[in-house]
Amino acid sequence: MATSEDIQTLILTTLDTQGAIENTDSLKTADGNAIPYLAVVGVLNSLASKEMITYTTIERDQFNLTQEGNDIADSGSHEAKVFNAVDPVNGIAIAELAKLLGASAKIGQGKAFKNKWIKKDGDKLVREVESIVDQTQLDALEIRNTGTHSKPATLKDLQARKHVEKVKLISYKVAKGPKFSLKIEKQATDLTAEMLADGSWKTQTFKKYNFAGNPPEGGHLHPLMKVREEFRKIFFELGFEEMPTNKYVESSFWNFDALFQPQQHPARDAHDTFFLLDPATSSNFPDKEYVQRVKEVHSHGGYGSIGYGYDWKIEEAEKLLLRTHTTSVSSNMLYRLAQETKARGSFKPAKFFSIDRVYRNETVDATHLAEFHQVEGVIADKNLTLGDLIGFMEVFFEKMGVPNIKFKPAFNPYTEPSMEIFSWHPGLEKWVELGNSGMFRPEMLEAMGLDPDVRVIAWGLGLERPTMIKYGLDNIRELLGHKVDLDMIQSNPACRLDKKMGKELVGKDAVDA
Q: Known EC number(s) (predicted)?
């Protein structure tokens, strides 16, 4: 096999004797073999960087026979095989032909009928002509020998029949460059301290650096990130602190048990939750006294509750999972608040929020994904009431551009009372569910160590639904996942929660916009 040095020498000596190389396909090694394409390209680029040569690209199409096409060139076409199998005098039974030729029988019959070589006589096939010319075989042989065919229509037909395939061949035309020489001077790639000291850099030839390239295109914010930033602005305006949400893997203790969600709850089933296999468990819990209080309130009750009356197991709480809601983060933060209150000796009100991904083992469809974003806010203060929650929700959603909301009683294991939040959509002319809300139960808060008069109001909603409404999307898979249109990502407008856009501009809203 020729080395790079051998190919360099061949190209330079050929240029020196012939003045130019019309096509690099004509270059052969000393033993008469063709030179691999990639080897030629590498040498040409190297010589061109030294300005010893210049070259231009030659592109041409070549047609190659497929495996079936080669079989036809060697042993004839399917239709010719059918004709030759038909006895000139007695013909051949159709069933016998299938046994004799296999797949070729079915393929070749249609073409042989079309060419009027054979005809059907009862359950037999008989010849209509004495002899044939197998033009398909001749065409295949011409393509094998020349790489093309004199008739474009024939090429198109054979491509449709999967007998040939088109490939693009690239070669090069080479000419002498301004610094052409038979001797290749080694170029330095770095300016060294020794060159600077002895002055040899003045006469040294340096390899050129290629800084050419397309300027990188700026990034584009995903619509979810734009809507997320609008929510963050609202929370910050209202004095909230953002919770750390980078812990996607959580223990069942923080995701369920600390929230007073029983271990038999359907949400803890593998059909609804992604449990980890390796590692499958973690015993990294807070202090043992808190874990014991959680066990006690589940099993026997406490803080005014009778509990669930079952045998709470630490093994269930140790199971690791992909968090099903960001409320697992809220439970961590509220426990930390209780610890800080204990250390400080006095309670300090707190307002927390989070916006991040959660995971549910759900069937994927136009409105559901196995992962999505949850917006959550909690407020902890003394003697808060349901009226405080409703009043704050009105302020919060007013800032979102949703002035008309109503509440409906609901059930959550860790909030009581609980409410679903609805908004009237003028364009759709119906009430649309926005999220869920409630007050965390004493069984959850007092077990953490918070005083009985400390109440926590909380609410949550998805990020995807308002984003789909704002940007006029019907299918959530067009917003997240492999079906996302990158042009949509690059061209979507800025988001304003307080301005109507997308699906909000429907019916009456379109007139007002």
A: 6.1.1.20
- Could you report the per-residue pLDDT of 112-139, keeping only the tens digit for each? 999 999 999 888 999 999 899 999 999 9
pLDDT for 338 equals 93
CB 446 within 8 A of CB 336: no
Find out whether 298 and 310 touch, Cβ atoms under 8 Å. Answer: yes
> Residue 270: how many CA atoms within 13 Å on its side-chain side?
5
| Side-chain-facing half-sphere of 22: CA atoms under 13 Å | 2
- Residue 418 makes CB contacts below 8 A (sequence gap 6+) with 409, 410, 411, 412, 436, 437, 438
Choice between 469 and 498, residue whose per-residue pLDDT is larger? 469
Between β-strands 430-440 and 164-176, what pairing exists: parallel, antiparallel or unpaired? unpaired
Q: Which residues contact 29 (CB under 8 A, 6 or more apart)?
A: 2, 6, 10, 35
For CA atoms 321, 327, 332, 335, the dihedral sign is negative
Tokens of 170: 């690239």
Residue predicted with more confidence, 82 or 367: 82
Sort 109 into a burial class: Cβ within 10 Å, 0-12 / 13-18 / 19+: buried
Instruction: Write the pLDDT tens digit of every residue in 33-70.
Output: 888 888 888 889 888 888 888 999 988 888 999 999 89
Q: How many CA atoms lie within 13 A of 284 on its CB side?
A: 9
The model scores a pTM over 0.85:
no
Q: What is the pLDDT of residue 507?
A: 46
SS (H, E, C) 221-272: CCHHHHHHHHHHHHHHHCCCEECCCCCCEEEHHHHCHHHCCCCCCHHHCCCC
